[in-house]
Amino acid sequence: MGSRREVQEWISAGRLTLKGRPVALDRPVPSPGSTPESLILPPFFLDGKPLRPPPPLLLAMNKPRGVLVTRNDPRGRSVIGGIVSASPWGSPRYGSIRPLGRLDQASAGLILLTNFPELFGDFLDPSARVKRTYRVQVSPPLREREQAAFFSGRGGEAPGYGKIEVFPERRSLRSEWIHVCLTEGKNREIRNFLCWYGYQVLHLIRLSFGPFELGKIAPGEIVDFSGRAGEAGVRWVNWTRAE
Questions:
Q1: Best CATH choice for the domain 4-52 from the list 3.30.420, 3.10.290, 3.90.550, 1.10.287
Q2: Minimal CB count within 10 Å: which of 73, 128, 205, 227?
Q3: pTM greater than the 0.90 cutoff
Q4: Confidence grade of residue 52 (pLDDT, cut at 50, 70, 90)
Q5: How far apart are CA 100 and CA 111, in angstroms?
Q6: Whether the domain at 4-52 and the domain at 58-125+211-232 fall into the same CATH topology
Q7: Topology classification of domain 131-209
Q8: What pLDDT is attached to residue 92?
């Protein structure tokens, strides 16, 4: 329902209580109990009001280029948090909505968001080898000497990455659009991979993440994928609040 820092601030200010006693940072808190159908939430109160988990959400956004994947920015730059706040899911009743993975500021395309990110740990684990597909414009056009390695998926080996598949789309005199598929998803992997071979990335757009596709989602638009969480191996938790 809040970031780690936010919850620590609630605790430090004495606003968060459990069974009538202020929660302390150095005092262990019991884990939720469980039944076959649900998890039992300990009776937490914030400012005297009972805390109830928000309805679970999985959202898909087409992140515009130039927007930061964060909830706020001290320098006042555009952030996805501002887009979420202006959407139907910006209400406090939905809790803290956070991104699953990242896209750098210069990249665009599909970003997944949820208010229960801890449930998606297996989906994000590199060992799960979840496929990501990107549409990338590079300059200059792909050189013939690298095409065999790129098209076979072996191009990532030389710069120290795993299999990176490259598929040509269309080329012009000065640049080329390609599709890039990978499963590692390391920080700036595509940019670093192409830079290693001497290519400049002009545009980078994520088209898919596992079973989820960008499709016709417009830049800045958010679509509710909550009913598809099972495709990521996630089963939403049914919470019962202990009194």
A1: 3.10.290
A2: 227
A3: no
A4: confident
A5: 7
A6: no
A7: Alpha-Beta Plaits (3.30.70)
A8: 87
